[in-house]
Amino acid sequence: EAAAQASGAAPNRDYVILQIGDSHTAADLFTGEVRDKLQEKFGAGGLFLPPGIPKAGVQSAEINIRADDAWTYKAMASTDEPDHFWLSGYTATVTQSGAKVTFTAKTQQAFDAIDVSFLKNNGGGRANILLDGTIVDQVSLDGRPGDPLIRRLMPPDGKVGSFKTLQVVTSSGGPVEFSGVFVDQRKSGVSYLSVGFPGARVTVLKRMAPENLADDMSRIDPDMVVLAFGTNEGFNDNLDVDAYKASLTSIVATLKSGNPDMKIVFIRDFEAPAERLEGTKRIMQTLASLAMKKAA
User: What kind and span of H or E run contains 150?
Assistant: First the structure.
């Protein structure tokens, strides 16, 4: 409302919020609830979607995601290939024809543009992009390994388009590496985009090449970024607070590099006395030990 008043626009003007966090964000539960409340009042915007199902708990509250078993995944949080990952933090790879990733909206999803992102590879394969069962674009991914290829789908005549189902379907046996979907809708309403990494700390963003992060931030161009970390940091007894502060300051600077007026919001996942945290850790360690004995 304040943003709308400042610009003189109607309250349903477009506003883009990007939340980056750990498993709570990846599950799109909190973000899904906030999204629903904001969009009920101001209108619906766009979405940011992972490349399939890279980990249990990575999902969308608005889109049902299904992926064939042939796809394999890499996660930025568990590798040291900073040039190979973008904001989604995951890549999905397959080397057979006919492999599908299907995104099905719970209601018709409006869009001004849809960015479908891939990575090239030596001898890279081909894939079709379908909206509601119709092929709308075809990609060939032969090229320098790791180079991005982003297909932007636009509705005709500058109108707002809509879809119920979006699919990526491979059409050759060469390697196809898929890194996510950004559904952009800026005609009106609020876009609440969620990007989450189970088990991550905020320093996971340091694993991404700064130019890759800056490029995605420029493309998404959020008005506000919400950083929702803290749970996993809370279990680090040897956390160097000064080093963490320096890393966080650097991350925020990178996020804001293309838009110094962008708002930054921090959410703490929980607040608990140190002794309670230690007790929780001991309980979790005991449960893990019991589970291992039972499995043996």
Answer: strand 148-153
CA–CA dist 72, 33 (Å, integer): 30
Helix, strand, or coil (residue 34): helix
Query: pTM for the complete prediction?
Result: 0.82
- What are the residues whose beta carbons fall under 8 Å from the beta carbon of 35, sequence distance 6 or more? 61, 62, 190, 192
**Cα–Cα distance for residue pair 164/166, rounded to 1 Å:** 7
Q: What is the DSSP letter of 56?
A: T
* Backbone CA torsion sign across 239, 241, 247, 253: positive
Is residue 13 within 8 A of residue 4, CB to CB? The reply is: yes
What does the alpha-carbon distance between residue 289 and residue 18 come to, in Å, rounded to a whole number? Answer: 38
Q: Which residues of the chain have pLDDT under 50?
A: 9, 12, 270-273, 275-276, 279-280, 283-284, 287, 291, 294-296
Q: What pLDDT digit, counting tens, does each position of 169-220 carry?
A: 999 999 999 999 999 998 878 999 999 888 877 888 888 888 888 889 999 9
- C-beta of residue 154 within 8 angstroms of C-beta of residue 113: yes
Q: How many residues does the chain have?
A: 296
- Reading the block at residue 216, the tokens are 């995605």
Nearest to 100 by CA among 62, 161, 53, 58: 53
Q: Angle 182-183-187 (CA atoms, 0-180°, nearest 5)?
A: 135
State the greatest distance between any 2 C-alpha atoms of the chain, in Å, as a whole number.
66
Residues 23-39 have pLDDT tens digits of 888 899 889 999 999 99
